[in-house]
Amino acid sequence: MAEREASGLQVLLHTLQSSCDRESVLTILRVLADLLSVGTDRRIHYLISKGGSEALLRTLVDTARTDPPDYEVLLPLFRLLAKVGLRDKTIGQKALELEALDVTLILARKSLSHSQRLLHCLWALRVFAARVTTGAMLGINGAMELLLKVIPPYTHRHSRTIRAATEVLAMLLRSKSNSRRAVNQGYVTSLLRLHQDWHSHDAAAACVPIRRGLLLCLRNVTTIRSGREAFLAAGGMELLFSHAQSHLEDSSVEPVVSAMLQILRQCCPRSALPLATASCAYAAPVPGSVTPAPPPALTDEEFEDDSDEELDKDSDPEDMKEDDDLETDVDKLTAKPGLDRPEEELLQYEAMCPELSCGFEELESQSGGDLNSGCANHQHIPAAASPKPLRVGQDQGSQERAGEDTIQASLLRMVKTAGARSRPATTLHPAGRANGLGTASPGNESPGIQAPLEEDARGLGAVSCPRLSAFLCTAARCGDTAAELEELLKSRPTHVAFHDPHLFMAKAKRTRSVVDFEMLAFPDLWGHRPPPSAQSMLERKCGIQRIKILEDIRRLIQPSDVLNKVVFSLDEPGLLQDTDSNSLRFFSKFESGNLRKAIQVRECEYDLLINADLSSSQHQQWFYFQVSGMRAATQYRFSIVNCEKPNSQFNYGMQPTLYSMKEALLGRPSWVRAGSEVCYYRNHYVRHVAGAGGARGRCYYTLTFSITFPHGEDVCYVAYHYPYTYTALMTHLDLLERSVDRRQVYFRREVLCHTLGGNPCPLVTITAMPASNSPDHLEQFRHRPYQVITARVHPGESNASWVMKGALEFLVSGAPAARLLREAFIFKIIPMLNPDGVVSGNHRCSLSGEDLNRQWLSPTAQRQPTVYHAKGLLLYLSSIGRRPVILPKILAKLAPAFTMSSCSFLVEKSRASTARVVVWREMGVSRSYTMESSYCGCNQGPYQGLQFGTSELEEMGAMFCLGLLILEFKSTSCHHQLLARAAAVLNTEDGALDFHLQRCSTGSSTAELEDEPPCAEEVEYSVGSGADPDASFAELDRQIQACAFDADEGAQAEQEDAEWRRKGIP
What we know:
Among the domains are: 8-234, Alpha Horseshoe (Leucine-rich Repeat Variant); 535-689 and 696-719, Immunoglobulin-like; 726-988, Aminopeptidase, CATH 3.40.630.10.
């Protein structure tokens, strides 16, 4: 059957090319039009695959060469060519080779006084010009001159033809050679005049497509430097700025305003960042490495790519070159690489697994299972008085989904409150020996520590809060200051779980950094308590991004009120911030802080520049700074102008985080989401070629937001996400270790290695203590499978630390599920793989300027010690037959914030050196995954429409652990006694666990959700992201279809043509 259909179509196409009978040709054209007017595009692609494009082009050439040309054949033929050409990406090249390009251009010239014929010629030229190289050829043959004759000043007539002409001209001007020709012949000024004329007369917005077409011509011609210069010289910036501002709220001309903004952004003079160098402001001497030279100054060539090479912008990158990033070589995927170190070197990691050989001779069985040991006294995990209420989205869908959410919420309550039911919170007790092995965990502080504040070299930054200004200064220099601070700490109105300011200060003295920190950040010292409920995602006001872009452009056009006053700079250490002026005061020289420069643009507007990662000139994304000196009830705008990522969740409801010192002193010590009018878009600052992957002309991105601070004369901290510092981790581990019940919990903390900066990288082991020192109990203890969990390889991903914090606290808690987990597994946890990067305020790299998650293939102890020894530990476990298990798929069914549709299980060549690929390939760990967390929020389940807070992130850590437990219950190796205990303990929660186990076994019928929430407006991430003429091919298709079925088309066209000829209009 398929062969008969193919042969039938081929017969039609062959007859179309060879027939001299006019009626036969018309009949075939009608048949083809009917076939292609229904169904999907598959029919058109099938026609193209059988040589349909070539057949139509040959018929066009043959028909056009008759004298006179038969337009009754040519018009339906042009419609078919346009329809097919929209789907044939090589139609332009085919038309060039078969001489149809010249033929169509000649017919267009002959049809200047016949609008209907000219319209059809223009449709064909438009699809031919979709290929830039073909458009360049049309420009050489005089197509632009022809089109400018077709585009008159404002008129009511021939709107379809004029619109088509503007769109074809815009397509031609995508060619750089055509754009240069247009500039040389003064077309930029002509186009501006035409736009101004149509704009001033079109009060009813009836000619928006024509006005947009003219703007697209200007947009394309200003992609080259000479085009921008001509545009600026003709006053284009001022003209379009005025037009855009006056029509910003007019939805009827939205396409016109969008095109205006694209031109304005494109024509803003590009410049280098207002920094002395793009490299990091701090120097980080790394042993054995050469300090990289700062990148040279930007050259003219780097500001744009203005070469003569014609890039085929319409070609699909997949067609231009095969995507070779996916690893498809089965041999490489299955081959197990050899060890990257001598095998005997793995024996050093035996000392990190003493649980496999310890005899626990000091353990003595007691009735009820209690054990007396030489372990430390314990404290139970503090529990909240009541679980946080869950906010469910308004649209709950069917009752079935509502039921699932109810059961899921029940399971969440079980995780959150199980510890509270099992044991109350108590105070800390003095610690004895760290574990039953008789070896104290290194780095512990005595539990009753009160760090002598006089010895602390760091203080708290000067603030304007009346209560603190008397004694807070940039350094704790005297005993009086220490006494005042001690008095203040004693008066803290709120208890923060797992936080001790004195212990934190003692730990901070031990944290090493290449940055000369001058203070401790107040949120780290005072502590953070999660708000009582999650905050909703910010509702984006439609058009706000355009308003902000126009405000930026106004600086260039109307600079009279622009201050450009540097108020903070790491590059100018002698710069003094005037405390008496109206300027805000900034600071960032504290742990994890990142702000390099602050420039006051206007009275309440500031441009901020963040620091590159150490030993690098890239990765500007993470920010964390202090700001003070604000006025109450005043809105301040902050614009971080050197962000690198081309996309951001800040455009989808995410807000920065804010910590107010005055709020903390009033008993609300919380990081909260703050900021309005949040936008993220491309700006005019040019990136260095070396920092942009070798590409020229790439620009930075601006994150802009406005904040009205809760109090005047406050000291606030603003951050990309909830900060979690290295010192906070070390403090948390100390407090966590003291809180565990040593008779039940085996908790061992040691140093995996020291970083390049000299900071210890902690390794934590958690499992259940053996019931006794009997051989059976010890055997069961030593044969528990290992779970290895690592986090924070990228310093800017502070959300990972909050998830890890939740996992750690859950694992040592008294929750029934936590006890079962400890009895089922031995957990080896490295909570922070990149301490140096975290301390320094990096976004992605370590002290050496390397992305540590790309170093797992062949790390070295000298340059990547944490990755080297983490891999060594995993290799050791694998060598002794204790291959770890990592992460279960079951999270997709269990955790409300986990989405399976966002997961990727591909192995890309570019990620061959990442942890998940190396651990899977070299150690045979089948379940080796990277779990990523959103900075923003969730679009499904109970948290739909909410931004993640620290509570939700910590809960994800607990859910991760629970997922491991369920996976173990489903495995065939699960101990029957453990499974019976689990059923007895966990099934008491309203059948929640049974429900989830059933869902995990049978799968969910719920359709996967989209990964990114909708935005209130089309997000213009970059200058050229707006709709192109080629993006409106669907509209052209509609016009062609309407023309084919318009019964009055011919009569109307003849009437218009006659009027044209009578008035002598060309």
